[in-house]
Design a protein that fits this description.
By secondary structure, the protein is an alpha/beta fold. It contains eleven helices and 16 strands. The strands form two sheets. The protein has an eleven-stranded mixed sheet with strand order 1-8-2-3-7-4-6-5-9-10-11, with helices on both faces. The protein has a five-stranded parallel sheet with strand order 14-13-15-12-16, with helices on both faces. The structure holds threonylcarbamoyladenylate and magnesium ion. The site of threonylcarbamoyladenylate has 28 residues, from β5 and β6.
Length: about 350
Amino acid sequence: MKTDIIKVSENCVSSGDEERLMRAGEILRKGGLVAFPTETVYGLGGDALNPEASVKIYTAKGRPSDNPLIIHINKFADIYQIVKEMPEAAVKVGKAFWPGPLTMILPKAEKVPYETTGGLNTVAVRFPSHPIARKLIEYGGGFVAAPSANASGKPSPTRAKHVVEDMDGRIEMIVDGGEVGIGLESTIIDMTVEPPRILRPGYITQEMLKQVLGEVGEDVTMMRNDSGEAPRAPGMKYRHYAPSGSLVIVEGEPQQVADYINARAAQDSKAGERTGILGTREQLEQYHADVIKCIGSREEEEAVARNLFAVLREFDEEKVTKIYSESFPAQGLGQAVMNRLLKAAGYCVVKV
Ligand code: TXA
Ligand code: MG
């Protein structure tokens, strides 16, 4: 299949943008697949109410079909068409954070095919804020299933070029709307349990949700893999976000972290490995390895979140086989950063 790659300005204001997005919407309505930017990461969209489109999404990503998709809407009121119940608490959360980087799990309405929900009786719903995503959902029929547009297991795409790497030749169209703003996938909150429970941390933090809901739980598997429980979001059980090289997170005082990483990298180099280090600007000068990547300043949490997936992909491009990373405080947005980093590392953490 030839993949059409089209450019659209971030706010859909350039001439021809509207017409290009209508063309993209037409593909969705006919059952085809279109990748597009959202404020979190690029999504791989298909018509959520068309079971064949959902099946195509799984095939294009190489994703197991028990891993459900998020349905994206463009109007708050549309949620009532795809959920069976809309609890008062969910209305509150929607009013507080939509449109935006938040996904709610609710009981599904009959018209949502099981192909889209991975066989579950619940459905994940998100109302994104990105202007391109919103227009595309509108033109695509109003209900767009979209997982992150990476090949299954790879870091999520934050730029169109990442989508091209993974999806060229596998889908009808890629809408290039530039770099995304947040860089980590939406927060997922399960509204079918009491109290509501976070299944995947993201830009909307537990603290922010508590302000609206009072009590908010979190899935015990979010930050550790030794609880003996399975994650409630099926997608979180797979090795994920992973670069091809092995990744080790090193935690401790900055100087000790640098000493440890340099010693391990030197050993690896002798053994014929190609070594890489993921560090913050403050510590970068201390490192020695084949490839050293700056994720941003330790003071700028949002930049670290935005750069994480791109930097993991760059290690692949440079054929790095052994990667060492600094660790980050797991509070606020840092919790989402560490959740993704831990999964990318298969929970391999060394404390020095
Ligand atoms: O920011 C995002 O959420 C991006 C953009 C494109 O919107 N999408 C995204 O989708 O990250 P995906 O498919 O890569 O991740 C969806 C996660 C998976 O871990 C999946 O298992 C979980 O949501 N999920 C979906 N439906 C669910 C359900 N009914 N119950 C529990 N978890 C669900
Ligand atoms: Mg994903």
